[in-house]
Amino acid sequence: MGQLRDVQLFIRKANEAQDLPDLSHLLDDMSRSLGFRYYALGHHVRVLSGDLLQIANYPHSWTERFATLGYLSDDPAVTACQKAIVGFLWSDMHRLITLSERQKTILTESRHAGLGEGFTVPIHLPGECEGSCNFVATAGKSVSTAALPVAQYVGCFAFEAARRLALNAPRRIAGSQTPGIPHLSSRQLDCIVLAARGKSDTDAGQLLGISNQTVHQHIETAKRRYGVATRTQLVVHALFDSQLIFEDILRH
Asked: How far is CA 132 from the centre of its chain?
């Protein structure tokens, strides 16, 4: 519960961030509170431009080596993102992909550079470059599995905040009806809240007195209106636009 409150505070501060450096400081603090030391957030592209994201606090020596040797094209975390829609531990990547020798080398060298266990949150947005948010512990330090669901949400929130700052994506001021924010019905919001609480469509339908197919349709309609691929991203957008508040999710 305490960590979810921290996420709620992160959302508020991320919405108030004036630029990417502000967001970087917030992400650094949040990463440490979750038991990680480093973070890296960005689009999965080899050449950066003003329309693409990339913020990180990895050790400078590793960042330079990573870029010099062109490791991005073979980054195992990037490759694994193509096989996942929810976050995964780096120690579990072999379950998603078959690691090449070069990818094994990248992981070995990253550990030598001080990076240990990592947790990658894939970001899939229709019509936009794929991306991710990585949280990484120092080498030799364990990661609490209890922190991973929170890291999943923080990664999505951080990416959305970063793209809104960098790409001038539309954002909504709480309490206003700014154009460009998709309208969600009260029933759609009910379904999203229950999905955020981990309820299945069947469970949500029983609680709301509707069929599981209707729950599914409500959520799919809301996803299409926001142009997102996953339910987690839908929750993130609804929270950022103040159509939901974290209290809705925490309240049972």
From this structure: 7
Beta carbons of 37 and 31 less than 8 angstroms apart: yes
**Which residue shows structure tokens 């195992």?**
76
C-alpha torsion sign, points 177, 24, 44, 131:
negative
Among candidates 26, 43, 21, 47, which has minimal Cα distance to 165?
Answer: 21
Q: Please tell me the distance from the alpha carbon of residue 7 to that of residue 149, in angstroms, as a whole number.
A: 11
Residues found in the chain: 252
Residue 117 contacts residue 143 (beta carbons within 8 Å): yes
pLDDT digits (tens, 9 = 90+) for 132-148: 999 999 999 999 998 99
Domains and CATH numbers, the chain: 2-167 (3.30.450.80), 186-250 (1.10.10.10)
Gap between the Cα atoms of 229 and 81, Å rounded: 13
Dig out the tokens for 158 from the structure.
Answer: 């951080």
pTM as predicted = 0.77
